[in-house]
Specification:
alpha/beta, Rossmann fold, five-stranded parallel beta sheet, globular
Length: 204
């Protein structure tokens, strides 16, 4: 039952892309376990990033993720330690972000605009992460973790997928509010008489 339900929910979310060399590999954070240990979710992401780097996916790896409430270490710092222990020399750390949107926005401060990046996360999370990274000015590509814990623990996967759809709902509402706010601002902005006539229908 769990496998069938998870498969149905995964359909619109999971992305498969062939390997290519991009500008960077960005591995997304998740809460740490006690004593700043990587959780199984993070172990999987870091391992996938290491494998992608060694396969030629990109010349640098960006670890992104700040401190969750109650944590003593930032997610990115713990991931960077594991990446460097795997002999990856070029690791950039972004350790202030608190969610996927901030992962994208804060990473954008560290890489050139328009950079082509691999996003490393669990399959259910990749499409939304790519949307947010695209909004932040990147050309994002999602690395699919074929042997993900998501495919092995299907009951957990259903829970993660339901939360992911809820996050998409929040993203849609936020985008709609921004769009309405932009229209309101445009309608209230000073306009020439000709421009005002052109926009009159939209502003009603």
């Amino acid at each position: 039952m769990w496998d069938r339900l998870a498969s149905l929910l995964e359909g619109p979310l999971v992305i498969h892309e062939p390997i290519q060399t991009l500008d960077a590999i960005v591995v997304l954070g998740a809460p740490l376990w006690s004593n700043a240990r990587l959780s199984p979710i993070l172990v999987e992401r870091v391992t996938a990033a290491i494998e992608l780097y060694r396969a030629g996916g990109g010349p640098i790896v960006v670890a992104t993720g700040g401190k969750t409430p109650g944590a003593t270490h930032a997610e990115a710092d713990a991931m960077a330690d594991s990446l460097r222990a795997a002999m990856i020399p070029d690791v950039i750390v972004e350790n202030q972000s608190r969610n996927t949107a901030e992962n994208a926005l804060f990473t954008a401060r560290l890489l050139p605009r328009g950079a082509r990046v691999w996003i490393v996360t669990q399959p259910f999370h990749g499409r939304r992460a790519a949307r947010l990274f695209r909004d932040a000015g990147f050309e994002p590509h999602v690395w699919h973790i074929a042997d993900s814990i998501e495919y092995r623990k299907r009951r957990h996967a259903v829970r993660w997928l339901v939360r992911e759809y809820a996050a998409w709902g929040v993203l849609a509402m936020t985008s709609a509010r921004r769009s309405l706010g932009s229209d309101t601002f445009t309608c209230r902005s000073p306009l020439t008489r000709r421009g005002a006539r052109a926009r009159a229908h939209k502003c009603k």
